[in-house]
Design a protein that fits this description.
Structural class: mainly alpha
Largest sheet: none
Radius of gyration: 22 Å
Number of domains: 2
Number of helices: 8
Distance between the termini: 52 Å
Shape: elongated
């Protein structure tokens, strides 16, 4: 860990390690904001600004750090993650549509399968897929801590809810 920190200290922006760390922190915040708002353009602009600043005014050897094998590896892992995330999103949309189906009123009959399919088709998949693919480390962290943990806690609470309701109403 200390070796990694010592290696990062050699990178500077505007002649200062502190400015480099501020720039990295700003990049990370922008990437998480991009994921939170589900807007990949924010992340793209943040990465472009980071690359320009570090290339022009910094000492970060991007050509040495970004190699063809590392880019290919990143894209392959991101692609696999985007497949898994798309599958999970489809299941999530299906559950939400099933829940909404009971509240759906219309003059004509719609089967639940057709209703779920329509809800899934209304979802703008393309922009999400590229965000999940190209920003998979940030997206994965956001998904695990934002969605999956919430689902786990909701599941645990559903199993013990009766106990807490009895205590509340005692």
């Amino acid at each position: 860990m200390i070796e990694t920190i010592n290696e990062l200290v050699v990178f500077t922006v505007f002649g200062s390690v502190a400015w480099f760390l501020v720039l990295v922190a700003a990049l990370i915040v922008a990437l998480f904001a991009s994921e939170y708002h589900e807007e990949g353009g924010i992340g793209f602009v943040a990465v472009v600004v980071f690359v320009i600043i570090t290339s022009v005014w910094g000492t970060v050897p991007l050509r040495d750090l970004v190699t063809i094998p590392s880019v290919v590896g990143y894209l392959v892992v991101g692609f696999l993650y985007s497949l898994a995330r798309t599958y999970a999103k489809g299941k999530e949309l299906g559950r939400k549509a099933t829940k909404d189906y009971g509240n759906y009123s219309t003059d004509y009959d719609v089967t639940i399968e057709a209703f779920i399919k329509r809800k899934k088709l209304d979802f703008e998949l393309k922009s999400h897929v590229f965000r999940w693919w190209l920003m998979f480390p940030i997206s994965m962290i956001h998904w695990v801590f934002g969605t999956l943990l919430k689902d786990v806690f909701s599941g645990v609470y559903a199993r013990v809810e009766f106990l807490y309701e009895k205590l509340l109403n005692a």
